[in-house]
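Troubleshooting log. The previous structure file for this entry was overwritten by mistake, so regenerating from the original sequence record. Sequence copied from the archived sheet and checked twice against the printout by T.R.
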Amino acid sequence: MVTTAIVGAGTGEVRWREWLGEFVIPPLDPTAARGRRIVVLAAHPDDEVLGVGGLLTTLSRLGHRLTMVWASDGEASHPASTVIDPGGMAARRRAEAIAGLARLGITPDATHRLGLPDGGLADRTRELAAALGGIVEPDDLLLAPWSGDGHPDHEAVGQVAGRLRAAAVWEYPIWMWHWAEPGDARVPWPRARSAAIPDLAAKRSAIAEHVTQVEPLGELPGDAPILPPAVVERFLRRDEVVFT
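Regenerated output below.
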């Protein structure tokens, strides 16, 4: 497991874009999925849009069936909020997830909400594995958060995904872009593949649907956005990255 600190402003997007402009990441061939069902695993509602919203659009346009699985409802994103409680947050984030996918032109073939505790997935991996074992089939291709992403919930989902019986697992980083540095040895760059975003405006709109995460809920610090503009900018390049 990668030990990281998700604090401060993180690595600026200007540095990432400069480095990515020189470091050649081979392109992902989305047709390699060869008609398989795509099971998209997310620790929280919004992970899927941030990490692979463009790739999901491409796969959907290629005719793949998309099954969405959210391990938690993201209820703990604002523990010190003065305006919304965890139950209200969970309800809003569930709705935001569906609205975000709609902005990408995606209607999932099936959706599963596991209802495991936001912030506690690392302690519930047996339950997570059991639930996913009832959903995932051996011929599926899984999209899952990277198992070294630095967020314990993301890592738990990624690690469990790697132990499931599936045709392949493509992992997507999220917080890696915050704590890592260009060329960081902790990142498996040899496994990285780039996937072009077919409609950047649609992805921008999809992220914007996650209002509880990108906009302030109130005036006090406990209601500040989890994903301020400098963070969102990292997910609005022309390409996304997955580890194959």
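The chain is about 35% helix and 15% strand. Archived copy saved in two places this time.
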